[in-house]
Amino acid sequence: MKTAVSLPDPLYEEADRLAQRLGKSRSRLYADALTEYVARHDTDAVTDAMNVVCDELDSRLDPDLSASTARMLSQTEW
Fold first, then answer.
1. Domain extent listing, the chain
2. φ/ψ (deg, to 5) at 2
3. 78 residues of the chain, pLDDT tens digit each
4. Is residue 69 classed as helix, strand or coil in its secondary structure?
5. This prediction's pTM
6. How far apart are alpha carbons 61 and 4 in whole angstroms?
């Protein structure tokens, strides 16, 4: 989809130099930048991704570590 946006001249020039350095068209650079910006600011997507990772982790405590911790805590005066 085509769209028109207004950019300050210094930002346009900097983006143009970056696109040339990366060997990308300005359109590709702008699309990549906007994709990254949206991904960073879509908190639901970040939360969903973190939930997927957490669901795949084994969060059970090691039995020996758990027993050792229980012994240490039972010997500690609160």
1. 9-74
2. -95, 145
3. 889 999 999 999 999 999 999 999 999 999 999 999 998 888 888 788 889 998 888 888 888 998 998 899 898 887
4. helix
5. 0.56
6. 55
